[in-house]
Automatic annotation (TrEMBL):
This is 2-oxoglutarate-dependent ethylene/succinate-forming enzyme. It is an enzyme of class 1 (oxidoreductase). One of its GO terms (biological process) is ethylene biosynthetic process. It comes from Colwellia hornerae. Keywords: Ethylene biosynthesis, Iron, Metal-binding, Oxidoreductase. Pfam families: 2OG-FeII_Oxy, DIOX_N. Belongs to the iron/ascorbate-dependent oxidoreductase family.
Amino acid sequence: MEIQVVDYQDKDAGKLFVQSLRETGFGVLINHPIEQQLVESIYKNWYQFFSSEEKHNLSFDPKKQDGYFSTEISETAKGHANKDIKEYFHVYPWGRIPEQLKDEILTYYKKASELAAELLDWVEKYSPVEVSAKYSEQLANMIKDTPNTLLRILHYPPLSGDEEPGAVRAAAHEDINLLTILPAANEPGLQVQQQDGSWIDVPSDFGSLIINIGDMLQEASGGYFPSTSHRVINPSGKASKKSRISLPLFLHPRDEVVLSERHTQKSYLLERLKELGVK
Ligand SMILES: O=C(O)CCC(=O)C(=O)O
Ligand SMILES: [Fe+2]
C-alpha cells in the first residue's frame, strides 16, 4: 500500500489515516487545522536565527537536551559512520528559546500537540481490541501534561562540496517517540523505505502534514504499528545551494508511562539516546 494523503475533513479520515500508518508507517493530512502561514513564518524566522551568531550562545545542554546542536555535534544515525549534515534547535516549553522567537514557536508547539492528541485518539479507536488491550493507558493520556514532547527546528545547510563522502542530510533512521508530526519542508528530500527495501518519496506538497510512527508506538502496540525507516537525501544541481528547513514534533509520553513489559518511556529513551551518541 502507498502512503495515503487524507483529507482531515473527510468523514472517514481517521480510518483511512490509521490504515495508512499501519501499512506504511506514514500518513499525510491535508485540510488540517495547522495554519500554513504560521509554519512559513517559523521557517523564515528560524532561518534567520540559524544564519546569526546568536545560536552559539544557546549551545545545547547535554543533560536537559534543550538548545542549539551544531553541524559538528549533530547526530549519527544508528548503524551509520557519518554525522548527518544538519544543525538543529530543540524546543521544550521549559527550555531555553531565543526571546524574539518564543511566542510564535510555543503557539505552534501547543497547536501541534493538541492535534497530536486527536490523532492518537484515532490510532486508539482503530486499533484492534487485542492491540489496544496492550496500551497501559489511553494513548492520548500518555502525552497529557508531558514535559518530554520535543519540537526540533532543523536546518540543512546548502552543500559546500566538502562534505565527507557518504554523509547525507539525514541518514536512514527510525524515530524514537510515539508519533512524529511534520509539516512538509520548504524543499524536497524526505523518503521512506518500503517493505521490499526500496525508497520512495513521501508525498510532501507544501501545506500538508506528514505523520509517522516512532519506536515507542511500535513498542506499545507489540509491533502492530511499524516504525518505518526514513531519510533525507542530498539535493543535486541548483537545489544543492539551497537550505532546507523542517519542523518535526516528536511526541513523548511522561517519564513514568509504561510502554511495554520491558520499558517505560524513560528507560527506552535513555537506551536510544546512548546509541545516538548524544547522551
Ligand atoms: O527533515 C525531515 O524532513 C525529516 C527529519 C527527521 O526525520 C528527523 O529529524 O527525525
Ligand atoms: Fe525522523
